[in-house]
């Protein structure tokens, strides 16, 4: 069991009706995607065709910031606010879509873009899965 | 002119139809609100009635994270993506509303909650103003 | 192989003499510790003895911020600056020590503090290991 | 009086011997520098000579992250830990120096680098001033 899952189990109050597996999966996907986007933006900077990758860098920087924030919000359970959670998950899914689409364009040429696209797709799906389960 | 405004003027490409004044105001409000929420959550921890302030702390922590991310996304103009900007502004306004409402409950007792509520209201309005101006 | 490790392998330029295994371990430890500290601070807020946990909350909040920043700095390799890397690793190790020590005091009573202490110790050691390997 | 200063005055417990003016100045400088670095890195991405600016982008990204974290740590006063504060201020001053030096190289050509260099210098000095005052 991951540390994320263990800490969720150690939360001292009732978590309500949330799907624990989807919540854990979403936190883990946010964290993974944030790091992948940070690394991909940096790898872009070291490519010889960096001038073709400026949109990719910008989108990855946004995605890293939003995924980190989403992972933090989802790691808090005290005084749960459904409106905040939903709006943050929507923003995260939207940004992962944008970043995944942009990395997709460069995936044939750059392995980091292929890996980053995969992380963005996983995170987008994890956010959508969690949003759907919130009813 | 603030450093935020000066840097916006120094951006080398066309910014499109965005309302520069509303954009600057929103970045400044996000930054101010993020710091206020961080300070308010900490001040809550040092109050003798901290047990009554746990919802305030949680909401302020979320708001600090989302305002910082929103301030960053709005400080980037390369490869502007309207969907990302809108969804992040919606999440920020939603969270500022929640945080402002919670601080409002404690404003009669704690000066930091009154100050933080004011910063949250300013940021919520700045986000809504910018969203409206995006058409 | 983790996504962190895969992205490191996909970096297009020479990484210099850095120990790749220690670098990957440190990024992973930073990310894990940041999430654990965010979750532990929130779990503290939901404990009935929250008034006894305010130092733990504060230290965990600092540790989450510094671990996230360290994970980001270590995920970038373009134009490596040894002074920046060292000073950030020192700050991270120092903060993980403080947070681990404080969580240690509460570990007998709260499972989340025990888990968080373990994450802080792993991250402190990973930072020290990487610092030592930098020579 | 800035919102940063007002919130410091609203902190409910004793702040110890810290120099309030230097503390406020440092929080404000960190926040200003973080935003300037985020905006400068993005402006770099939109310059036609982006391939010459990759070191500047990387250093600005690090500096934005570290300045934000430093501004957060300095905005918290509960259970003050001198070792954490010092190590974070050292890391921030070191990174602002690196970022200011790199922006200095591009300041003759790019107004955003000139503005960002100024923000980095102010923040480095504010960190050093606060460190010195801590004794």
Total number of beta strands of chain A: 0
CATH domain topology of chain A: Substrate Binding Domain Of Dnak, Chain:A, Domain 2
Approximately what portion of the residues of chain A adopt beta-strand conformation?
under 5%
Mean pLDDT value of chain A: 98
What structural category arises from helix and sheet content of chain A?
mainly alpha
Biggest interface and which pair forms it? A-C, 37 and 37 residues
Q: Can you describe what's shown?
A:
The structure is a homotetramer of 135-residue chains. Chain A has 135 residues and is mostly helical. Chain A has one domain: Up-down Bundle (Substrate Binding Domain Of Dnak, Chain:A, Domain 2), CATH 1.20.1270. The first copy, chain A, has five helices and no strands. In chain A, α2 packs antiparallel against α5, α3 runs antiparallel to α4 and α4 runs antiparallel to α5. At the C-D interface, α3 and α4 of C face α3 and α4 of D.
Structural key phrases:
homotetramer, 135 residues, mainly alpha, Substrate Binding Domain Of Dnak, Chain:A, Domain 2, elongated
Secondary structure elements and pairings:
4 copies of one chain form a homotetramer.
Chain A: H1 3-9, H2 20-45, H3 54-74, H4 82-106, H5 111-133
Helix pairs in contact in A: 2-3, 2-5, 3-4, 4-5
Give a nutshell description of this structure.
4 copies of one chain form a homotetramer. Chain A has 135 residues and is mainly alpha-helical. In chain A, 76% of the residues lie in helices and 0% in strands.
